[in-house]
Structure formats: C-alpha cells, structure tokens
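User: Let's play a game. I give you a shape written as tokens, and you guess the letters that built it. Ready? Here's round one.
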C-alpha cells in the first residue's frame, strides 16, 4: 500500500471524525458512563481551531483519496524543576486507523509520523493514555516500544 502521512487539512474533517468516531464507539461500548458515542469527537469549530494552533496537529494517513488513519497530538510544556530542566512532552489525544485498514502497518506508519512531528517540535518524550479494557491498543503500543508509566485508579462515589 502506498500511504501518504501528512498534516490534516480543513476539508478532511468528515473523514477524520469518522475514524476518531470508530475509536469513540469502542470506548463507549466498554465504558458507557464515560463516553458518549452519539457526539462528534471534534466539533467543526474544535477541528478548525486545532489546525491553526502551533502546539497541536492532526496527522493523517491517506491511501489514494481516502483518509484511513488519524493522530491528534499536542505539545505540552513541562516547567523546570530542581531535578529536570524545562522540557516538552508530545501527548497523543486521539489515535485511530479505519476498520478494514488495521493490521497492514498503517498504525505503525502513522505512529512513526507522530514521533517525527514530536521530535521536530522539540519534545523529549511521547505519551498517550490507553484504557485498561483496550488490550489490543496496549499490545500495539508496547510493540512500538512504549512502556507503562503509571496506573490511574478509580472508584465510584455514587451510591
């Protein structure tokens, strides 16, 4: 497959949101109290604003004239401390590959493009969140060399 990895354009909105929506549906099915699959992942206004910020980008994988993957990545500032100098972390907010194109190396290529974006922006590391139920995603990211940094634990306070 001849895939192009590039920064999203304004007219990619519908296709990008469909891909991110597939991920949202997976999360809403597993955690319906936390995710609503009836809404757009990014509103048109949020999408447009994202394209104009210098510290956030949407990267896409394009096959022929079709968007088949999307990565929303943001550069976050880490203030200096006595133990570490000022640094930046690239944080992947959303990442997905369209059903039917998974397991063909598209995600691996898109992740590589995301890492390259992070390096060009001066990030010292790349982070993302994987929900505990999503073993497929965790295995994918571990195969790319990512390591578990922490566990976020929760308990309901509702009766």
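Assistant: Ready! My guess for every position:
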């Amino acid at each position: 497959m001849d895939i192009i990895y590039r920064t999203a354009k304004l007219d990619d909105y519908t296709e990008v949101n469909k891909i991110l929506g597939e991920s949202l549906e997976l999360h809403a099915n597993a955690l319906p109290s936390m995710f609503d699959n009836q809404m757009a992942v990014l509103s048109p206004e949020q999408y447009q604003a994202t394209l104009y910020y210098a510290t956030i980008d949407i990267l896409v994988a394009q096959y022929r004239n079709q968007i088949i993957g999307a990565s929303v990545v943001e550069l976050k500032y880490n203030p200096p401390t006595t133990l570490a100098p000022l640094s930046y972390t690239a944080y992947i907010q959303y990442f997905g590959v369209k059903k039917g194109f998974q397991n063909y190396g598209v995600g691996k290529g898109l992740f590589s493009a995301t890492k390259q974006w992070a390096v060009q922006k001066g990030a010292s590391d790349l982070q993302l969140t994987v929900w505990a139920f999503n073993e497929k995603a965790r295995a994918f990211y571990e195969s790319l060399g990512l390591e578990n940094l922490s566990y976020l634990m929760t308990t309901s306070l509702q009766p």
